[in-house]
Amino acid sequence: MNSPHNCLFCRIVAGQLPSRKVYEDDEMLAFHDIHPKAPVHFLLIPKVHVDSLADCGPGEGAVLAKMMLKVPELARAAGCGNGFRTVINTGPDGGQEVYHLHLHVLGGPRGQWKVPLP
Ligand code: AMP
Ligand code: ZN
């Protein structure tokens, strides 16, 4: 497992690196992606470090459920009333670049997205 001390997203949680916050509570943090792939593109992460979805177990079940249930509320608040896309890249073949579990939320008019549908 990554040491939280050198994990980019743990450092954002700790306030050691800046982020444009979308939402925060005791267990999770949402902030805008630094390289947005759509008009709305933010990341939702658990505050507790876990490398990826593949490293989650029953202990992460509660926070994962809370994150999933928070997504529609945050997406609506960000202006995605017409829909949004939720992505979790996992591992090298999944295209994961930052090894602190994060959920991408993408939205806005489809013609303006920089990523195609799968
Ligand atoms: P992934 O490929 O799923 O690991 O995606 C990592 C995402 O984190 C990419 O979309 C990056 O643009 C984004 N990212 C990397 N560094 C930062 C940062 N400091 N603040 C916000 N987003 C970031
Ligand atoms: Zn971390």
From TrEMBL:
Which PROSITE patterns does the annotation name?
HIT_1 (PS00892), HIT_2 (PS51084)
What organism is the protein native to?
Answer: Cupriavidus basilensis
**Which residues participate directly in catalysis?**
102 (tele-amp-histidine intermediate)
Q: Which UniProt keywords apply?
A: Hydrolase
Which segments constitute the HIT domain? 8-115
> Which molecular function terms from Gene Ontology are attached?
hydrolase activity
Q: Where is this motif: Histidine triad motif?
A: 100-104
Q: Name one Pfam family in it.
A: HIT
Q: Cross-referenced InterPro entries, in alphabetical order?
A: Histidine_triad_CS, Histidine_triad_HIT, HIT-like, HIT-like_sf
Q: What is this protein called?
A: Diadenosine tetraphosphate (Ap4A) hydrolase and other HIT family hydrolase
Looking up Gene3D superfamilies in the UniProt record yields: HIT-like
